[in-house]
Amino acid sequence: MASTPQDPDLGILLGLAYEQFVVELRTALAEQGFDDMGRSDGYVFRCLTKRPMNVSELAERLEISKQGAAQIVDDMRQRGYVERRPDPADGRAKLLYLTERGNAALAAARRFHRNREQRLVREFGSDALSTLRAVLGAVATEERLADPQLRALF
């Protein structure tokens, strides 16, 4: 089906859907006591759920400067989401871990994601959601993503 001149561009629709998703996520997190979450926090959460790492590894994974990663980590540490612990393999090094608060925020975000998907299934059906996932998954492959921070999410 071809779009008509008054139809929003696909990019606009994708952007609006994403922004609405973020607003709903931030609202849900705030209602559960996580009203201080920043946009870059999600990238760090995603990296640290895979395994603990030091600031240099985090910076490399996010393809940002070590100083930039250290600033993000320091901010998240002050808000109680991450902590530094000695590296068991190298006593001089420190690894980053999610704190109890960080794990609670992550669990709240995951609950939101599950609930939002369930709402989409109720509204549009499981076939529509499966198709949406397949299309978005094909568009957002790691190889296609130009932004290094987005690639870090894979």
Salient structural properties:
7 helices, 154 residues, Arc Repressor Mutant, subunit A, 2 strands, mainly alpha, two-stranded antiparallel ribbon, HTH_MarR-typ, DNA-binding transcription factor activity, WH-like_DNA-bd_sf, MarR family protein, 62% helix
Chain-wise SSE layout:
Elements: H1 10-31, H2 41-50, H3 55-62, H4 66-78, E1 82-87, E2 90-98, H5 100-124, H6 126-139, H7 148-151
Antiparallel strand pairs: 1-2
Helix pairs in contact: 3-4, 5-6
In short:
The protein has one domain (36-151): Winged helix-like DNA-binding domain superfamily/Winged helix DNA-binding domain (Arc Repressor Mutant, subunit A, Orthogonal Bundle). A two-stranded antiparallel ribbon has the order 1-2. By secondary structure, it is mostly helical.
CATH superfamily, called what? Answer: Winged helix-like DNA-binding domain superfamily/Winged helix DNA-binding domain
Average pLDDT rating: 90
CATH class: Mainly Alpha
User: Which strand order do you get reading across the main beta sheet?
Assistant: 1-2
Strand tally is 2
The CATH architecture can be named as Orthogonal Bundle
Write the CATH fold name: Arc Repressor Mutant, subunit A
Query: Any idea what the radius of gyration is?
Result: 18 Å
Main pleated-sheet profile: 2 strands, antiparallel
Ends: how far apart? Answer: 32 Å
Domain HTH marR-type: 7-141
GO molecular function, one term: DNA-binding transcription factor activity
InterPro entries: ArsR-like_HTH, HTH_MarR-typ, MarR/SlyA-like, WH-like_DNA-bd_sf, WH_DNA-bd_sf
Protein name: MarR family protein
